[in-house]
Amino acid sequence: MNEVLVLLLGTFYGLIIGLIPAAGATTGLITLFSFMYLFSDPYLGVIFCMAVVAASTTGDTFAGILLGIPGANSAAATMVDGFPLALKGKATYAISAAVTSSTINGLLWGSLVFLFIPFYMELLLFFGVPELWAFTIFALATVGFISSKWMIRSTIAIILGIFFGLVGVDPNTNEARFTLGWFYLQDGIQLMPVVAGLFAIPELLEGFKKRDKTSLMGSNHLIQLIDGIKVVFKNIWLSLRGGFIGAFIGVLPGLGGAVADWIAYGQSGSKGNGDIRGVIGPEGANNAQKATSMLPTILFGIPGAPFAAIIMALFTYLGFELGTPDLAYDTLFFDSLTFGFIAATALTGVICLVFAQYFAYLSYVPYRYYFPIVLLFIVWACMQYTGGWEDLIMLLFFSAVGIICKYVKFSRPSLLIGFILSERVEALSIQMFTLYDWSSLMERPIFLGLILATVIVGLIGLFKRNRLEYV
C-alpha cells in the first residue's frame, strides 16, 4: 500500500514539474534533496525518484506544445511542430500523439531495461580496472565529441569539470589542493550547487524572460484526443524508430535526451509548420532515452545523462552505491526501480490523456508566479550541506558559470560529467598505471575494444564538426 501511495505522489509531483516551462526532470530531482529524509524506507525513495523521472519526461511535452517553451531541453524538438499545431487549434491532437508515442516507447524500453537489469549486472564480472578506466574515457569522449559541435569548447569544459572535481584533499598526500586556503572546500565541491548552477538556474532565468503567449485548445477535444492516438498507431514504425534512437543514445554515457530527440526529429520526415510526424518521432525517443540512460548509471556509476547524475546523488543519499557488484544481489532495489518507472509511465500516460484539457490550464499560468517557488526549493536544496553562506556562494558561483557556458556555447553536460567522473578518473588512472604495463593491457580484448570505440567517437566528432562548419 505504501508503494502505491509513493508512486502516486511521485507521479503527481513529476507531472507538475514537467508542466512547468524550462524545468524538466533535472530541476525536479534537484528539489528532492530537501525531502529525502522523509523516506525512512530507502526503497520507497527509489520508487518516488523513478516515478518523478517518468512523469516529468512525459509531462514536459505540454509546455512545449501549448506555450512554445519546452518543459526541458529534450522537449525542444517536439515543440517545433507541436506549437504550430496548437496555434492552429489542434493542441489536444498534438498532445495526445506525443503522450501516446512517449508512453509506448517508455513501457517498451523500460521493460527491456529494468526487468532484465539484474542480468546486465553480470557484465561487471568482466570489467577490471583497465576496462573501467577505458569505459570512463569513452564516456568523456562521447559527451565531449558527439553531444556538441563545439568539440574544442566541450573538451575545455570537461577539463574544467575535472579540475572542479579535484578540489579538496589529495588522496596521495592527504594535503589540501586547489582550495585557495578555504577550509570549506577541503571536503570537495558538493554536487548540488554544481548541477543547480549549471542547469536549473540558467533555464529558470531563460524561462522567466519568455513570452506568455498561449493558444486555446479546440472545442472538439474528444475527437482530437482519439485522432492523436490513432495517428501514432498509423505511424507506429516512426514512433518505434524514434524509441530505438533514444534507447541507443541513452546507453552512451552523458549524451542526454536533447541529442536523441533531435536525431529522432531529423529522421521523422517532418516538413515543419505543424507536421504531426515531427511530434511522434522525438516523443518516441523521449522516455526510451530516460530508461536506457539508467544502464551505465547503475552498472558503472557513470551517469547516462544530466538527470542521471542527480539520481546517483539521491540514491547515494538513500544508501545505494551505484556501479558496485554488491548491488547486483539487492533484488528489492531492482524491483523498486522497475515498479517506479514502468508503473509511473503507464499511469502518467493515462492521466495525461484523460486530463489533457485540464492540465493545459497550469501551463497558462504566467511564469512569474511559480518562478520564485521553484527557485526557493533549489536554493533550499543547495543549502542542505552546511546551511551557511558558503553553500549560497557556491550556488551563485556555479550559476554564473552555467549562464556563461550557456551563452558562449561551452557544453554544460561536458563540464558536469567531467566533475562527476574526476575522482574516478584519478583513482582508476593511478591503479591502472601502477598495476598494469602495456603488454598486459594488449591482452585484454574488452579494454582494446573500448579504446577503439573512443577513437571512433573522436573521429565522428571531427567529421561532424567539419561537416557543420563547411557544408
Can you offer a commentary on this structure?
This protein has 471 residues and is mainly α. The chain has one domain (2-470). It is built from 22 helices and 2 strands. The chain has a two-stranded antiparallel ribbon with strand order 1-2. The longest helix is centred in the last third of the chain and has 26 residues, at 445-470.
Task: Give a summary of the structure in a few sentences.
With 471 residues, this protein is mostly helical. The chain is 72% helix and 1% strand. The chain is built from 22 helices and two strands.
User: What is the CA-atom radius of gyration, in angstroms?
Assistant: 22 Å
Helix coverage percent of residues?
over 70%
Q: Can you list the strand order of the major beta sheet? A: 1-2
Number of strands: 2
Distance between the termini: 58 Å
Q: What structural class do the secondary elements suggest?
A: mainly alpha
**Low confidence ranges:** 466-471
Q: What does the average pLDDT come to?
A: 79
For the report, how would you describe the main beta sheet?
2 strands, antiparallel
Strand-and-helix sequence, N→C?
A: HHHHHHHHHEEHHHHHHHHHHHHH
Keywords summarizing the entry:
two-stranded antiparallel ribbon; disordered C terminus; single chain; 471 residues; 1% strand; 2 strands; mainly alpha
